[in-house]
Structure formats: structure tokens, C-alpha cells
Amino acid sequence: MEQEGTLTRAGLKTPRSAAIAGIVFSILFIISLVLIRISVPANPQEAGTWLSSGWKTVSLALHLLPFAGIAFLWFIGVLRDRMGAYEDRFFATVFLGSGLLYLGMLFAASAVAGGILRLYGATPGKLMESGIYAFGRAVTYQMMNVYAMKMAGVFMISTCTLSIRTRIFPRWMAFLGYALALLLLLSTGYFYWVPLVFPLWVLLISCYILFANLTDKK
Question: Which value, in Å, is the radius of gyration of the alpha carbons in the chain?
Fold first, then answer.
């Protein structure tokens, strides 16, 4: 009986943990992305004039991203646990792989951007002359706005497919996720603010899971 009670309490805690982790990720990532977007020009070929006035804001944004990544990793784990025995192996592999690839590219792009800022703080003139800024800016842009966003789209599609089978959130949220995922897959690189779609979608399903969990306990 004692073991059964422990398993019941663990089962009740997992959905709330998933919701809280998703909300933390969404808020931190949205703040970080907005700070970067208002400081860095949309054109990846821009000469870097923004560095003199915006490097501190971007540095703050980059310091928030690791914590957002940790929350997202927790979100993946507890969301997968919520699916339990109903998890489909094929879609679960795509779900886990795309989520980890997205997180890896997010961290890699942040590291490149952070390296550029450190070099600028030490030798601002040499950074521009060496061509390191142009290369780092292009790599960061491609990694975040193209490849990472496409992995986010794949993550959304696999999560929505698993949701339809396991009913971890309503079908209309799953269909909305499909539409938003297609937007990420087809329009990344064309619309400057489209990366916000992913954290907003995670925020939506996280709020639903948290609300559903609190309602079930009443």
C-alpha cells in the first residue's frame, strides 16, 4: 500500500513539473529573444555597428539562454514521462532527437555569439578587421534562424502526433501545433520574429497542463 501511494504521488507531480518547466523555458526564451531582436539588426550582413550600443543587452540575453535550455530539457523529460506506456517508439525517437538537436544548436549558437562579444570587449577594432565578426554572425544567424527553428518545427509535429494518440492535451492544440510547425519549417529566415512561435506554443500547452492538473485535484 505504501509503494502504491508513492507511485500515485509521483504520477500527480509529473504533469505539474512539465507545465512549470515549459512555462519557465517559454518566459526566459521569449525575454532573451526579444532582447536580441531589439538590439541586433535583421540583416546578417550588417557591419556590426550595433555592438557599441547593444552588446550589454545581448550579453544579458545570452546569460538567460542556458537556464531556458535547462528548463526545456526538463520539459522534454517530464512530458515524455507523462506519455508513459502509450508512447510510440517511432515518434518518441523523433520527439527526443529533434528536441535535443534544437537544444544543442541553441547552445552552440549562443556560444558563438558569446565568443564574439568577448572578443569585441577585448579588441573591438581587431574583431572587425579580422573577419571573425562576419563569420560568427553568419553562423549564428543560420544556426538559430534556419536549422534550430526547423528542428523546433519537427519537435512540434512529433509532440502533436504523440498528443493525439495519448491525449496529453486537446486535439485543437495539436492541430494548431501542426499549423505553427509548418510556419516554422517553411518561413524561417524570412520573418524576423517567427522564432517566437515555438516558445509561445510551449507556453500554451504548459499552461493547459498546469490548469488541467490543478482542476483535477479539486
Answer: 19
